[in-house]
Amino acid sequence: MRQFNIDKQRAFSGFATVAALIAIWYLSSKLGWMDKQTFPTPEQFAAAAKQVTLGEGYGDGRLPAHAWQSIKLILMGFLAATAIGIPLGLWMGWSRKAEALVNPIFLLVRPIPALAWIPLAIVWLGLGDAAKVMILWFAAFVPAVINSFSGVRTIERPLIEASRMLGVRGWSLVTDVIIPGALPSIFTGLRLSLQGCVTALVAAELLGAQLGMGKVLYQAGLDIYPAMILIGMCTVAVVGFTLTALLDLIERLSMPWRTVR
């Protein structure tokens, strides 16, 4: 019940904030406080939304097709990065030998921004989806490794020793003690990885994309179409918010023992 009340309060607060921003936007456009050539009015925004959603589309496709393409790329990059990054981080956090072996290489890769891999992605994989997924992979990989590593290192040593004294060893120790103890930090890394994918999405989709929100934003910029730029930005925001909300739900289901604050 308490969790439901908190969620209800958050939803109401978010709705009130969005409604207030829309009201300010509408009044500003009606009172002439905004330049219609640089910032779209609500009427221009609605017309652009109708065009890209129900009309002839924009950037070689309609909005649902663009959004779905972007979601697919985000999920592929995110899942591929975390499927490798989380086990690697857990292994490095648990084994000093693994840390000594892998950490020097990881420290070399870690400072390189995801967008710096764009030239190599093009050379290695061309202009298809594989190159875009590679860029998103690098955006998500580093946070997944770092937070999984930190999660293991923050587990109190007496807890591990007590588990061993009770006969919990080997793989059971990993699944029953190490992973549950590291889960809060792992989910922090998952959030950062997902945010990294969403942030790098637009730049990744500039690589000869046929569909995607990056294609919409790039084309709208070339056409000097502020209303369509705003449509693209809002869609990216909604996609990111929705995926983050799903990740929050998975976190709650995975850690029902955590106390809601």
Can you describe this structure in just a few lines?
With 261 residues, the chain is an all-alpha fold. It has a single domain (43-254), classed as MetI-like fold, CATH 1.10.3720.10. It has helices at 2-30, 42-53, 63-94, 96-109, 118-125, 129-153, 157-165, 170-204, 213-222, 226-254.
For the structure shown, list the relevant keywords.
single chain, mainly alpha, 10 helices, MetI-like fold, globular, 261 residues
Shape descriptor reads globular
* CATH architecture title: Orthogonal Bundle
Which structural class should the secondary elements be placed in? mainly alpha
Amino-to-carboxy terminus distance: 13 Å
The largest β sheet comes out as: none
Q: Spans of 5+ residues with little confidence (pLDDT < 50)?
A: none
Q: Can you tell me the CATH topology?
A: MetI-like fold
Q: Enumerate how many helices there are, as a single number.
A: 10
Overall radius of gyration: 22 Å
Summed over residues and divided by their number, the pLDDT gives a mean of 86
* CATH homologous superfamily placement: MetI-like
What is the ordering of alpha helices and beta strands?
HHHHHHHHHH
Extended strand count: 0
| Secondary structure: helix percent | over 70%
Beta-strand residue fraction:
under 5%
Question: What is the level 1 CATH name?
Answer: Mainly Alpha
Number of domains: 1
